[in-house]
Design a protein that fits this description.
about 0% strand; mainly alpha
Length: about 190
């Protein structure tokens, strides 16, 4: 890994997904790889750096961290497990600001954003572990279970959620690569 000033230590470990594995392991490994990528892109930045947009976009790394914490809660806690949204999502007036996750992140410290993201990921992993343990079928059948709460089109399979999370994270990891390089020149994170 390099930065604008040369090689850096690896503060956020990241494991490459296995080349050969079952479907559950493969999907979870890719999600975890991209979660770590996002954390690496945000690690060590100042408040100002996390809040810096890359015009013409108004996106920031701060907003991305908070948005992804929200995405974790929506898909695993609310949809898959059927729970009410966790704090702070439980009190958000989304009608007043549909981009509250992105916008409110500008008022948060790096420590608050990191803790929110890490807590959301840990909660998602616990929920996912329980969901995988509850189904007495091994292999692909486990991924056929559906959400407790439907989406706009009805119930959603766990397979779809995991594939969607790979897509969500990989898309934002690409954004984060560009933003981080623009902020401090760091690459290959």
């Amino acid at each position: 890994m390099t930065s604008a000033s040369g090689p850096m230590a690896d503060p956020i470990p990241r494991t490459d997904p296995p080349i050969v594995a079952d479907e559950v392991t493969t999907l979870r490994s890719f999600i975890n790889f991209y979660r770590a990528t996002i954390r690496r892109q945000c690690d060590g930045l100042t408040v100002e750096q996390l809040r810096t947009p890359h015009p013409p976009s108004t996106m920031t790394l701060a907003g991305m961290l908070k948005h992804l914490a929200y995405v974790e809660d929506v898909w695993f806690n609310v949809r898959l497990a059927g729970n009410e949204p966790a704090p702070p999502w439980d009190t958000v007036d989304w009608a007043a600001d549909s981009d509250w996750d992105w916008n409110s992140a500008l008022d948060d410290t790096p420590e608050q954003l990191t803790a929110l993201f890490d807590d959301a990921v840990a909660a998602s992993e616990r929920i996912l572990d329980r969901a995988l343990d509850q189904v007495p079928v091994s292999g692909a059948g486990v991924l056929d279970q559906t959400t407790v709460r439907p989406g706009r089109s009805g119930l959603i399979s766990l397979r779809w959620i995991l594939v969607h999370m790979v897509e969500e994270y990989s898309r934002h990891a690409g954004h984060a690569d560009l933003f981080r390089e623009a902020v401090d020149g760091a690459t290959d994170l």
